[in-house]
Amino acid sequence: MVTAGPDGSPCLPCVPGTYKSIYGSAPCKECAAGLYSNVEAAVLPARCRACPANSDSSRGSVQAGCLCDLGFTGSDGGPCAACAVGTYKEVNGSSACSACPAASSSPAASVVITDCICNPGFFGPDGQACRFCVPGQYKVPSPSRSRPCYVVNWHQS
Q1: What is the b/e burial string over 123-137, where b = at least 16 CB atoms within 10 angstroms of the residue's CB?
Q2: Which 3 state secondary structure label does DSSP give 115?
Q3: Residue 32: Cβ within 10 Å count
Q4: CA 101, 107, 109 angle in degrees (round to 5)?
Q5: Helix (H, G, I), strand (E, B) or coil at 113
Q6: Is the model more confident about 46 or about 136?
Q7: Predicted confidence band of residue 146 (pLDDT cuts 50, 70, 90)
Q8: HSE of 152 in the Cβ direction (CA atoms, 13 Å)?
């Protein structure tokens, strides 16, 4: 006996990233965003698994469709690690984290170049080249990160 589809054609298995838990001519359902399935002919939504930590997928994805989030890197579908201190990543996927401009740093898992702020003793706009403070001036980290260097005031006691 040959099983037929809605138009008399053969029934086909649901492709990976989809499932169908009922009989009949209804189409296969996609796994939700953030989930994946590598199983062909899946019959239960439980076959859709969560993407690894710090990654996401679009609807109907297989594991390789789980892409690392901004600020994280790793192979598609694999584990995703936070970008190291002093680096950032502005796109989803397996691309490498980018280094901050010279004389600047950023926290781990930074997502934009403007997370890179000048190191103590340097000044400049966030995410851009930093310059040395001139002799007799200094710079310390502060919430207002693009502040200029301060003049050193020496007092003799």
Answers
A1: bbebbeebeebeeee
A2: helix
A3: 15
A4: 100
A5: helix
A6: 46
A7: low
A8: 11
Q: 0.70 cut: is pTM over it?
A: yes
Distance CA 112, CA 76 (A): 21
Tokens of 145: 């990160």
Q: Contact, 70 vs 91, CB < 8 A?
A: yes
Q: CA–CA distance from 125 to each of 12, 65, 112, 113 (Å)?
A: 58, 37, 14, 11
CA 9: distance to chain centroid?
42
- Kind of pairing, strands 55-56 and 67-68? antiparallel
Out of 29-33, 62-66, 138-142, least confident range: 138-142
Q: Which residues partner with 81 through β-bridges?
A: 73
Give the Å distances, CA to CA, from 86 to 27, 37, 120, 132: 48, 35, 14, 18
CA distance 4 to 26: 13
How far apart are alpha carbons 45 and 83 in whole angstroms? 33
Residue 74 pairs in a beta bridge with none
- What would the pLDDT profile of 81-94 be if each residue is shown by its tens digit? 999 999 999 999 99
**Tokens 């901004």 map to which residue?**
70
Residue 136 corresponds to which tokens in the numbers above? Answer: 């007799």
Go through the chain and tell me how many residues it has.
157
